């Protein structure tokens, strides 16, 4: 792993809420470095698009939008997704029309983003160009790239007594929002991923980075899906940049989301070390370094045994200052002194 | 003109706001007849669809929606169009994205109607089937039929110093909303009308009616466009039912809208008689009877000279009771006693 004491070009593989909060911390870290006379980080975000869904004829990209709204100052910070000062009149009316799905939360302000995106997609622009256009308004302070311009949608098999096979398959959003991840995930399939190609600039952003970071996003349906895009996982395994990740599992539980359920579905131990070793040491795997929470300090040894440099630091993203300290720890782990 | 003292099957050719208010009066009139021991009217509305517009990827049908919302109890009564208790967050956001057109008012509640309609159209349903589906929610108390399932859009030529021809062509909605009908209409063209066919049930509703009514809607871009659909105007000229209209011009001015500007563009006198004679006496024209306002009583003679039975009554639709009296006057004119 080449040393990079002060990385400038930083590429982050991000999911939604957790990734967006991590990126806030990264930009805070960069701003602090600039204040101290250093150079600003040039951050490229490769975002998961497998949570995307066509709903009511509109293309909705939850992870891209969460990153864009969070960094652009439009997010509802408490909820973690969607727009601040949001109203829900259109979706109330869709329910009154009896139109399915009724469980998908489409705010009135948020709708505008999906209308612009859908119209541009239908005019022939790829998702990457649409995302760039939307970001011209939001100015998120990062270059935001969809992992792919191709359609990839994660589906989850869940138990269904009524089905002859005993199971049925639902869109990831339905598993997460309607079923609240409260039923077992029998299988998690990113439909279309094997035919997808990395979006424009994605491989270059990974290969040309000074540092690649895996934020504490969901290791199966967020980062895992990004790494599953043919050529993209390969770029992470081969990049000259160090690759450091942060555990979404703290004290044997996910901090937010439903990583736990999905790790169980894949037979992966629900622990900080379990996830780190699932990513694996480069070049066969995807990691050089892995940060675990202080509470999981005992797991550092297992990671080091697996060829992954590890350290235990506070991993709760309570605010941008705390998150910036996590970024610094990741930078330190990537380029150890001495 | 056959007598029809108590018409049951009443077919109305309607535009938006004026037509919808007239229909409220017609239903009020029908309810009063039921209270008096009579039969309810079976009202079919053939609505203008040439104001329709694709905007932000959505199919918007102003006249259909105004009739549906007005009779279904969802209208903003003061504004005359759109939904009551409406918010405008999506359209604010579209403006923030810099997406054109910014002048078209799309409320958040209203958006749901356009999302449902657009998705059904894109799934292959004709506009008539979509309208029927939307009306299942609104229960307007009339059978609401688009004049055609084909795309017809009225365009208006306006002066433009910058254009080599000295004029440019805008969608009717742009003329009406953005330009506020404040510039001369050099030409008014219902694009597509000559290739349109009447929607399902439209010709039958006209031929099978006991009475056909032309409410005080715009004689050029609302009723005029409906009559311009090949086969539909013919049905009005040939139906065994009497055809009676109500003047939108009172005292030499339109009561609401921009009939005046468009009549001038066509060289039609802006008067109650001018409009009645423009429709003309059947079978060459479209009318048996024409109601003018009391203020225009002096014009009755000119209409009678033109072969159109005419009467002067109060024509201001101030409330459903006043409008119901206009309906009764139209019924009386269709079937004169003795």
Automatic annotation (TrEMBL), chains A, B:
The keyword Magnesium applies. Pfam families: CofD. GO terms for molecular function: LPPG:FO 2-phospho-L-lactate transferase activity. It is an enzyme of class 2 (transferase). It comes from the Bacteria. The keyword Transport does not apply. Keywords: Magnesium, Transferase. Its EC number is 2.7.8.28. This is LPPG:FO 2-phospho-L-lactate transferase. It comes from Nocardioides massiliensis. The lineage of its organism: Bacteria, Bacillati, Actinomycetota, Actinomycetes, Propionibacteriales.
């Amino acid at each position: 792993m080449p040393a990079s004491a002060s990385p400038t070009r930083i590429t982050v593989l991000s999911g939604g809420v957790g990734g967006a909060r991590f990126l806030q911390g990264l930009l805070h870290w960069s701003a602090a470095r600039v204040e101290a006379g250093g150079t600003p980080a040039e951050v490229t975000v490769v975002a998961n698009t497998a949570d995307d869904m066509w709903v009511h004829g509109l293309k909705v990209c939850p992870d891209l939008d969460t990153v864009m709204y969070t960094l652009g100052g439009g997010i509802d910070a408490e909820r973690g997704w969607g727009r601040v000062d949001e109203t829900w009149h259109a979706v109330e009316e869709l329910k009154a029309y009896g139109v399915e799905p009724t469980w998908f939360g489409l705010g009135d302000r948020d709708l505008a983003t999906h209308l612009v995106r859908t119209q541009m997609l239908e005019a022939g622009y790829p998702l990457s160009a649409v995302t760039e256009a939307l970001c011209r308004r939001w100015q998120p302070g990062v270059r935001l790239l969809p992992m792919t311009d191709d359609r990839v949608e994660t589906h989850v098999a869940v138990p269904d007594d009524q089905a002859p096979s005993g199971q049925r398959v639902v869109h990831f959003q339905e598993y997460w929002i309607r079923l609240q991840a409260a039923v077992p995930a029998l299988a998690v399939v990113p439909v279309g991923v094997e035919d997808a190609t990395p979006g424009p600039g994605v491989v270059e952003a990974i290969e040309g980075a000074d540092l690649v970071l895996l934020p504490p996003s969901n290791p199966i349906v967020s980062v895992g899906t990004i790494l599953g895009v043919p050529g993209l996982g390969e770029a992470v395994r081969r990049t000259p940049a160090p690759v450091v990740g942060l555990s979404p599992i703290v004290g044997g539980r996910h901090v937010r989301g439903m990583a736990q359920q999905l790790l169980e579905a894949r037979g992966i131990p629900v622990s900080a070390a379990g996830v780190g070793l699932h990513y694996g040491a480069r070049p066969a795997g995807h990691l050089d370094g892995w940060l675990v929470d202080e509470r999981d300090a005992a797991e550092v040894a297992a990671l080091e045994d697996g060829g992954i440099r590890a350290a235990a630091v506070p991993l709760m993203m309570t605010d941008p200052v705390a998150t910036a300290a996590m970024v610094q720890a990741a930078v330190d782990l990537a380029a150890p002194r001495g």
